[in-house]
Amino acid sequence: MNWLIAILQTVLFVALAPLLAGFLKFCKCRLQNRKAPSLLQPYRDLLKLTRKQPVISEDASWLFCLAPYIIFSSMVLAATVVPLIAVDLPTSASADVIVLVGFFAFARFFIALAGLDIGTAFGGMGSSREMTISSLAEPAMLMAVFTLTMTASTTNLSGAIGHVLNEGLILRPSFVFALFALILVAIAETGRIPVDNPTTHLELTMIHEAMILEYSGRHLALIEWASQLKFMLYGVLIANIFFPWGIAESFGLSALGYGLLVIVGKLIFLCIFLAFAETAVAKMRLFRVQEYLGFAYLLGLLGMLSHIILESTR
Amino acid sequence: MILFLAYSAVLLSFASGGIALAHLYKSDVNKQWVFWSLGASGAMAIFAGLGELVNPEIRLDTLNLGLPWLPWHVHFDSLSAFFYLVIGIAVFAVSFYAPHYTHHEQKNAQNFAVLSLFTGLFIAGMLLVLLADDAFMFMIAWELMSVASYFLVAFQHENAANRRAAFLYLLMAEVGALFIILAFGVVASFADGFTFDALRASTLSTTWMSIAFVLALLGFGMKAGLVPIHVWLPEAHPVAPSHISALMSGVMLKVALYGLIRFCFDLLPEVHWEWGVVLLVVGTVSALGGILYAMMQQNLKRLLAYSSVENIGVIVMVLGLSMIFLANDHQELAALGLLAALFHAFNHALFKNLLFLGAGMIHHQTHELNIDMLGGLIKRMPKTSVLFLIGCMSISSLPLFNGFVSEWLAFQTALQVDVLDNGVLRSLIPVSAAALALTAALAAACFVKVFGLIFLGVPRSRHAEKAKEIEDKGMLAAPALLAGLCFFFGIFPNVMLNLINNVAQQLLGSTLPPQGELSGLWLAPVSAQQASYSAPLVLIGALIAAGVCFWVLRRNPSTVTRIAPTWDCGFGGLTPRMQYTSSAFTMPLRRIFSPVFLIDEKIEKTMREHTTMNVAEVRYTLHIQDHSWVRLYQPVERGVNRVAKQVGRIQTGNIRTYLGYSLATLILLLWVVS
Lengths: 314, 674
Known about the structure:
The structure holds 2 protein chains of 2 kinds. Chain A is mostly helical. Chain A has one domain (2-311). Chain A is built from 11 helices and 1 strand; from the N terminus they run ααβααααααααα. In chain A, helix 1 packs across helix 3, helix 5 (121-152) runs parallel beside helix 11 and helix 9 packs across helix 10 (253-280). Chain B has a domain at 594-674. Chain B has helices at residues 2-25, 32-54, 78-101, 103-106, 109-131, 135-153, 160-188, 196-200, 206-224, 232-239, 242-267, 273-296, 300-327, 331-366, 377-380, 382-395, 402-414, 423-455, 462-465, 473-491, 494-508, 535-553, 582-585, 587-592, 627-648, 655-673; strands spanning 59-63, 72-76, 517-518, 523-524, 562-564, 598-607, 615-625. In chain B, strands 1-2 form a two-stranded antiparallel sheet. A two-stranded antiparallel sheet of chain B has the order 3-4. In chain B, strands 6-7 form a two-stranded antiparallel sheet. In chain B, helix 6 (135-153) runs antiparallel to helix 7 (160-188). Chain B is globular. The model of chain B has no long low-confidence stretch (mean pLDDT 90). At the A-B interface, strand 1, helix 3, helix 4, helix 5 and helix 9 of A face helix 17, helix 18, helix 22, strand 5 and helix 24 of B. Strand 1 of chain A pairs parallel with strand 5 of chain B.
């Protein structure tokens, strides 16, 4: 029964990810006085891509065709670990938050290799930039996560969320710092403004799109879906770690339904916040990104120090 | 029985060298026996190591070798056995690889004899270091290892740069050995005798203990390649033949770590947390410095050598954590740290060997080690590329591979910091954990560069274009064995961790906490509530997820892939030179971390017909130098030269002056005697 719910939650995760991307686009369009596409548009795009014939460069190797499957499955695995509507699921014990970061690294490794596979300048440019930004973002993310895991004294996500739930509503300075650090990292890692612009093509500033320029058909569909999934993973991570209230602690039908409603509400709120931020801020130069991520790291460090100095029981 | 196996490993590697000599003088000796003997030596070392680890027991022996009143004391415990196992696996793999790899040297009997003789001596030296139970035998074995490997580094001595690298290596090895002798001397002066038992029983003041620790750290750190005394390593490792570089980088550095662990955790009567902090800081600096410099290299073997500096840094850092926990009486957490450090040492031996052997295969087929001249090998050398990819994934610590497990254990150790009382340590350790995260992420970027530029894309030179797959089965079997082990220990790390737990039991007197679990499926080092990881479940999940989407998407027959030329933005004429190169790939990181490097970047433009707009030719040169060359080595070198010049002044070349010196000495001695 527990395993069934775990699988169901993963499927829900994968199924809802395009909807979340659609909703974010909807919010941004409304804020910019444009007419928004339907919320279901991302699903239609994915379906269209899977029906098309993929075109592959003659210089591509087997790695190029295999990479989308690897990228997508590591994101699905990451989705099994992050609690969406219920905590204490059996899958979340099989991997903790460090392994979650490892799954992201796995996907990134292969998407960067795929970018280099064709041998065009665009692919190399995207891979180089992606690896640079992510290697700066990873310590910032772990610093924020460590603050949380040290408070809860577990690296298991379910356990950490359970700990926050039990403690009740306490304003911890370390959590405030960690929250902002994690938001900054999430924006950088999911390729949103101001670090990368997901809507540009063929522009010298692009990162994610440069790597996947040569993909088409079902391969592109998988990569697009994986990046939507990654976006949702970060959203759920932020929402459920710092504001876990409402998540189902038992596996009754009403608790699960309530959990689903609450997480949808939290994600809607996050999306509106992000849409406002993206509308208000312009994309920054590539060599400002290290300052941005350095700031995120500093916030994580401050969170850690304030945990040690202010909140520790010793 | 176990000791017999251990001895026979040493004797067989001596025999391997001896057979090569015999082959030189009597050419009817089959030279394949050299490699069979080497392989048997590796197998014996594996059996001896495994036998001892499964059934841990301290085995002692005395050999009447050396000076008559100074017999060699031999001691084989689980720590020695663990490193025996590491050496055994590496030597076993190399013995399959070497026959075909050295077929060029085999044509010249003298070269072959030199190479094989010193390989045998080198391996025997490493094994003897692990067996030593007194300072004399330790130092003799240590020097055997160092000097034999000097001849291997200098093997291709036709090249002046190689001679220079070999001399630097010898110099550093001897200076390091001096520090080690001094360290032993400090402890021995408070003990009666040079056996390790006597050293253990010595009573030192804290000051002298700390002096001994610093000397040992300098001596062993010089061999292990800790920043800033690492500069010989990226010079010496690349110039040796690839299977020797594999042994040097993968195994010899581990022997230096063995020395450090033996000296600090076993011989010194107690440990202090301050030493742990020193190891933590030095390890962190080495890890970060090593990977940042590795990233900037264009020569594949130099890059791998710098990456060894990084991995040794990670191991030393975790050892520092273990020491801090041990000094604060958290034995179980100290065991966790030791477990993480030793497992990472084991993993590094596997994947660094694999990568060096892979580099040798690339060099063998293309005669090229410059990353910027390769490319597109994945189609030309498909088997090699898969093996090399596994090595790259392990070293980048991606889940499902062994490197990840040891990195995960290192993080788990660092996160136990809440049990400590000292506020400085509590804030220092998480920062070093974040540095470890940065190191891991940079390592991934570095090996994306390595694999992407060498194997993917379009060939950048004719050598790369004409490359063919290796046909010799043995040369493929060695890296395949190592790659298989990388994957196996990534999925079932507990097999090894249970064995290392015995080492912790014997060395620290404590194992992992009893709540922890090391069963087939679960890895939960502290307790299941705190952290758990199940690689087999993750693997099953990954296979299901990939299988389902593969099956769903491949059903539609109208979507068979179409092969087409690469899109060239409508301009035409894509050339291999338009691809990203090594220096282009790392440019953003070079710019962000620019204070770490000494960068000499020049762009020279030649204009056409005296105009300022019409560029005829652009020449770009980039030279990156290590800070420790300029800041540490060259000042020391200048200082030594200056002192030598001053001392040289007493050499006047005039016989009367020398007679005067003799007279002065005589008078002085007479005065002293009376």
